[in-house]
């Protein structure tokens, strides 16, 4: 008797259903809808991995700007001064420093101010 991938097909379907767990309605229980939804979700995941990078950078810039304003500087001046002073801290570490190590951030701001005054 001829077989038509019975076990293999069921395993494949179960893998898809497992990935679609938690989806609402037919999107999580009907194989055709599940396939379409998983394709779309993969596209969203691919796109949003890039969007997440942009969003975090925006967040770091907002935090740095807020912290820098307390030290009478503008964000653009601060970044320019960092480059002039050869301080190689990235935006992520600067925003963390502004939150968790205000004294260290103040030292960085003072160094930037000195560099800007000399230039």
**Helix/strand/pairing class, anyone?**
mainly alpha
Identify the overall geometry: rod-shaped
Quick one: CATH class?
A: Mainly Alpha
Can you tell me the CATH superfamily? Ribosomal protein L20, C-terminal domain
Q: If helices are DSSP runs of H or I spanning 4 or more residues, what is the number of helices?
A: 5
What's the number of structural domains? 1
Series of secondary-structure elements, N-terminal to C-terminal: HHHHH
Strand content: under 5%
Share of helix, binned:
over 70%
CATH topology: c-terminal domain of poly(a) binding protein
Radius of gyration: 26 Å
Unreliable runs:
none
What is the average per-residue confidence, as pLDDT, rounded to a whole number? 95
Main beta sheet: none
InterPro entries: Ribosomal_bL20 (IPR005813), RIBOSOMAL_L20_CS (IPR049946), Ribosomal_protein_bL20_C (IPR035566)
Keywords: Ribonucleoprotein, Ribosomal protein, RNA-binding, rRNA-binding
GO cellular component, one term: ribonucleoprotein complex
Function: Binds directly to 23S ribosomal RNA and is necessary for the in vitro assembly process of the 50S ribosomal subunit. It is not involved in the protein synthesizing functions of that subunit.
């Amino acid at each position: 008797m001829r077989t038509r991938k019975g076990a293999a097909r069921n395993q494949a379907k179960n893998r898809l259903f497992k990935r679609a767990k938690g989806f609402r309605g037919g999107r999580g229980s009907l194989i055709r809808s599940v396939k379409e939804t998983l394709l779309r979700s993969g596209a969203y995941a691919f796109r949003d991995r890039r969007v997440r990078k942009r969003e975090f950078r925006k967040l770091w810039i907002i935090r740095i700007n807020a912290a820098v304003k307390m030290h009478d500087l503008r964000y653009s001046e601060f970044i320019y001064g960092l480059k002039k002073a050869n301080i190689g801290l990235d935006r992520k570490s600067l925003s963390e420093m502004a939150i968790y190590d205000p004294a260290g951030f103040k030292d960085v701001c003072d160094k930037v101010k000195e560099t800007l005054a000399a230039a």
